[in-house]
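Action item from last week, closing it out:
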Amino acid sequence: MYYFTYAKGFRPGGANNPLPPVACAQDFQNFGIAVAPTTFSSDSVSSFEIGAKNNLGNRVKIASSIYYIRWNNIQQTVIPPVCQISFISNLGQAVAKGLDIQAEIAVTDAFTVELATGYTDARYTQDSRLTPTEDPPVVTKGDAITGQSAQPAAPFTATIGLQYKFTVFNRESFVRVDDEYQGRAKWPSPGQDPTTQQYDSANYVLSSTNFASARAGMTFGGWQVSAFVDNLTDTHTVTNYNWTIDPGDGESRLQRQFTFRPRTVGLSFTYRN
């Protein structure tokens, strides 16, 4: 099957929580505003996608797509570099484009391989300002779009899953290993770009991450009992971070770091009637 889709949509606007004027006074002065915006308006997207879903002899199943998205009047989180108390504003335009491929390969009747990979380029296409006279801008053309974490998304992701089915003591059994990889961000966020008002010299680009897990199980009638190990390598790579309020001298700042849950071993029981 081959397909083409076009979609257009929007999100409603909303309200911001008020920001303390004393803590954020320096940021407001740099932004050229008296107070943080109390509301933000709708944003909209136009999306184009071309894709295919193919089944080759019930041995290889492939789904692939290429997409292009135009995003207007973006609802984007702004993080003042001094007070670190965020608000949402409508910041210009951006384009997100990329591709993804998913494949399920039956190497044998018992051994299957699942693969998925994707590449995304999501960046602003113009400078954005909170006021016409703001210089430098709050966002610079080419900066990465950020989500709730305020970190740029990994442009490249890949996952692989290997599963082998077999019989032990006349009971259906399996072993499975999965690995998820996210690449290092390629383009800076506004908070990492020294040509923007949101730049904070303490910000840094996150490293790539790799998360592995394993599972093995056996079926007993309607029950499936399986043992699992998540975070197989017990990695503690930083996956996100943020800062407390900076009074200006930088000496009392506290960085909060987030990472994967430590290696976790357990059992799961599933019943199917």
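Closing note: The chain has a mean pLDDT of 93.
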